[in-house]
Description:
Helices cover 32% and strands 18% of the residues. With 428 residues, the chain is of the alpha/beta class. The chain folds into two domains: 3-171, no CATH class; 178-425, sialyltransferase cstii, chain A (Alpha-Beta Complex), CATH 3.90.1480. The chain starts with a helix and ends with a strand.
Amino acid sequence: MSALFEQNIAIISKRWPQIAQHLMQTSFEHFDAQLVTGQTQTIRVDGVQLSSRHDRMAEASLFIDTLPKAATNISLYGIGMGDVASLLIDNLAIQQINVYPLNMALLALLLTYTDQREWLEDARVNLMPSTDPFAIRSPYIASTPDLQLADDKNAATRDLLMLENHREFSNRHHLDKDPEIEQRLADNLAFVRQDQDAAILTDLYPNRDVFVIGAGPTLEQFYDYILNQHCSAKPPLIIAVDTAFKALAHHGITPDIVVSIDAKITPAHLPVTVLDSVKLVYFPRVMTSVLNAWPGKRFAAYSQTSMYKTLNKQHPKLRLFCNGSVIHPAVDLAIKMQPSSITLFGCDFCYANNKTHAFWNDGDLGPKVSVSKKHLIENGQGEKVTTDLNFRGYLRSLEQLIHQHPEIDFYQSSPQSAKLQGVSLLSL
């Protein structure tokens, strides 16, 4: 135990004794930590620098400049080298600074080799024992190095923060005034006018359990089970995403409802023959050719984004949660049916069995396993499996949606799927 650690931990012991006890029992020996020197010094941990090595204060100021000018209550996710916290306490207008470590071992290392007493002693600072995996406290600053080094306990918070950090980039194809979007909405306006509101569906299926079927690779394990349940005396309502429809049809399964929201889905992604009993719930961004070719009833809905604000005023429709994945509105639609249980099939959010999707060839629907093995997530068996950065964000958004509905029992069909908080494994 270094002298610096003893000085830092003395303050933490007085202010946050439980955190101090945790830190004193935490080892950081597994880290490869090195001092890095430029115009200033920083620490590199497992190849990740905790700050700039040339001008740490300038970097910290850039982080602080992202905050609203009038912000008085700040959340810090990760600590870096402590520079952001040190600069924030110089601002007397700030009333509260909540600091959320994303890796306690990393904090123990920082306290061992650096003096953090200045901000630890400030009465406005609260060192938080844990993060909330279902909520990000805004306004906030997220330390990029800490996101890279976050431990498993804080994985959900890390993913939500990364999703928020990338939101502007991700939304570049979903801007309200995008000419392509405006044209697509105009092309589909006649359908929106004549098609029924998807809200009608929420009253048509009382007392039915719901199967929500995505196109993830583990779907292939459950075709027989789904078909048997579909043919049972009390069949579940089956809501399938568009990219799962072809796989289901190939195995003799006819969903009750298909959900389609993506502007790039074409009729080729759907079965050649679609029974007119299958209902389509769609967002008006889908291809006009998909709507034209649909033989059954169509039901319009909107996401909760501003893209549909004007359209919803003119032609009100059901608003469904969506944060990047068609699975989101499919699950939200199921929730609005008020079932006692919702079971997820093929909602994997990872490359189970080294595949991106059931039925489809690698790359047919976008991501390729061969070029996407950069990120990891824990599956239901406690194993680290490969995934896509977007998939992790979609999963965390789904967890938030599920967390809002404790009255419904949620089940995940396969332990090979990414682990979902608040969801139990289906017992077959």
